[in-house]
Amino acid sequence: MIHLEQVSKHYLKKAALSDITLSLTPGTITGVIGENGSGKSTLLKLMAGLVRPTRGSVTFDGKPVTRRIASHVSYLSEQETYYPFYTVQETIDWQASQFPDFDHQIAEEILHFMNLDPEDPVKNLSKGNRARVKILLSLARKAPLILMDEPLSGLDPMVRDSIIKGLISFVDLEKQTLVITTHEVDEIESLLDHVIAIREGKIIQSISLEDLHLEEGVNLRQWMNQTYTSSTRS
Ligand SMILES: Nc1ncnc2c1ncn2[C@@H]1O[C@H](COP(=O)(O)OP(=O)(O)OP(=O)(O)O)[C@@H](O)[C@H]1O
């Protein structure tokens, strides 16, 4: 699985991440939380091989992660990365042509689950349905590592709910590991096995949800408030 060892990432002279060491446990769902600009997207891009560390190493199953071996990962970007003039079906077919691990059967199931019309041009879709298409494209791949950058951002509660149900139904935790960045901690809490809190490019806390509930006796929002308040004081 993915391992980061003393990783720092600078953009020009500015540090986006500093001295990050972490390993993901296979078959788990990890949430990454943090304020805007704290380094969440950069962390996912490093895991995906989309940016290179300035210092330290990122490995997957012991091999250095590069753009070329990025087939280990299905990466859902914050940006909209498909062609607006394609229909939903053409978008699915294009994704399938790019990734050998794309599973048409799962794509079809998610299409129905998400109530998407394959003939609709993507440019005519609502924001919620465009978000559902992104989820479909990401989850229809059998990549061992799925990275989702803000899949719930700016969506109404019904769309968020359908996306979370999609994650529960279509991520195969026997074979896949999921990392998700989000500000929507209330919605995501029931999904997570583990949470990492980032502030100004550093991991300030990393804890399992079980410990958070049983040992700390708080929910994710309370824990987040405590964590960020105490890190401001220190
Ligand atoms: N391509 C880039 N060039 C220069 N600076 C960048 C670039 N990408 C990110 N940064 C900077 O790195 C820092 C971390 O950015 P990043 O996008 O990883 O944060 P984030 O936690 O994902 O933020 P958000 O919640 O707003 O998406 C920020 O200060 C950002 O301005």
Automatic annotation (TrEMBL):
Report the domain of life of the source organism.
Bacteria
Return the PROSITE patterns for the record: ABC_TRANSPORTER_1, ABC_TRANSPORTER_2
* Any one GO MF annotation of this record: ATP binding
Q: Where does the ABC transporter domain start and stop, copy by copy?
A: 2-225
Family annotation (Gene3D superfamilies) = P-loop containing nucleotide triphosphate hydrolases (3.40.50.300)
UniProt feature coiled coil, ranges: none
UniProt keywords (A-Z) are:
ATP-binding, Nucleotide-binding
* UniProt xrefs under InterPro entries: AAA+_ATPase (IPR003593), ABC_transporter-like_ATP-bd (IPR003439), ABC_transporter-like_CS (IPR017871), P-loop_NTPase (IPR027417)
What this protein is called in its record is ABC-2 type transport system ATP-binding protein
